[in-house]
Write a structure and sequence with these properties.
single chain, seven-stranded antiparallel sheet, Replication Fork Single-Stranded DNA Binding Protein
Length: about 250
């Protein structure tokens, strides 16, 4: 449901009524949805579900299947708000010398603000229920995730006695096992090769899929969706939206 921003009714810093709260959340969201940001379609599986996948990007230019047109998958260093999990952006410490997420992690360690490294890469996903579609697969580096297995298959330093893996020519099957964030694992298996042309598809621009938020705007960005209560404390409010990307 869409609300006109002019319909928001406030009493000083308090926002009352679900319509007004939802409108405030939408206003906060719109503030950071600049013209450069692109909303991607994310790869995601349910418990015991599988999909056949062709990676449409290589991980290094030395890959025999590297395509200048499609570019490379990328590792991103990010922060998530520990409660408002949709509020996620790239860490800016290396670029700007400061980062709100890093500051919050230093102030309150082990609360969920620490840096997270994730792989982002375009894939052609076939769930067996229609035409295959281009999606962005994101994966953390923890046990049971796709990224560590994929990096092991590709190899940072290929064996001299073996030909380097041409990633976009390999057929993969990914199977999810488990339903919770803490007890979920993904099985990545090779299923032969494919001659399907990865350049035949329009990919999502990873530079525009990921959030680049300048330091001066980060506190407002990470805390968007929070409204004041009558006790003067912040109450974290979400609209109930979900994202399959967050399962990875």
């Amino acid at each position: 449901m869409t609300y006109n921003l002019g319909d928001i009714k406030t009493d000083m810093s308090l926002i009352r009524g679900i319509k007004n709260i939802a409108a405030r959340v939408e206003a906060d969201e719109a503030k950071f949805s600049n013209t450069d940001y692109v909303k991607a379609e994310w790869f995601g599986l349910k418990d015991k579900q599988s999909a056949n996948v062709q990676f449409l990007q290589a991980l290094d230019e030395s890959d025999p299947s590297y395509s200048e047109k499609n570019g490379l998958g990328a590792m991103a260093v990010e922060h998530n708000h520990p409660t408002l999990w949709r509020n996620k952006a790239l860490c800016t410490f290396e670029d700007e010398g400061r980062c709100y997420g890093c500051e919050m992690d230093a102030k309150a360690p082990k609360t969920g603000w620490k840096q997270k490294t994730k792989l982002y890469i375009n894939v052609l996903a076939d769930y067996g229920d229609g035409e295959p579609k281009v999606q962005v697969l994101s994966s953390g580096m923890g046990k049971g995730q796709v990224a560590p297995v994929l990096l092991d298959i590709v190899g940072a330093e290929p064996d001299e006695d073996e030909d380097p893996v041409a990633l976009t020519t390999v057929k993969f099957k990914i199977t999810r096992q488990g339903a919770g964030l803490q007890n979920t694992a993904y099985l990545l298996t090779q299923k032969g090769t494919t001659k399907a042309d990865p350049e035949a598809h329009e990919l999502f621009d990873l530079d525009k899929v990921l959030r680049h938020v300048p330091y001066g705007e980060q506190e407002a960005f990470y805390n968007r969706g929070a409204v004041a209560t009558e006790e003067g404390e912040k109450e974290l409010v979400t609209t109930g939206a979900t994202s399959s990307e967050e399962e990875w």
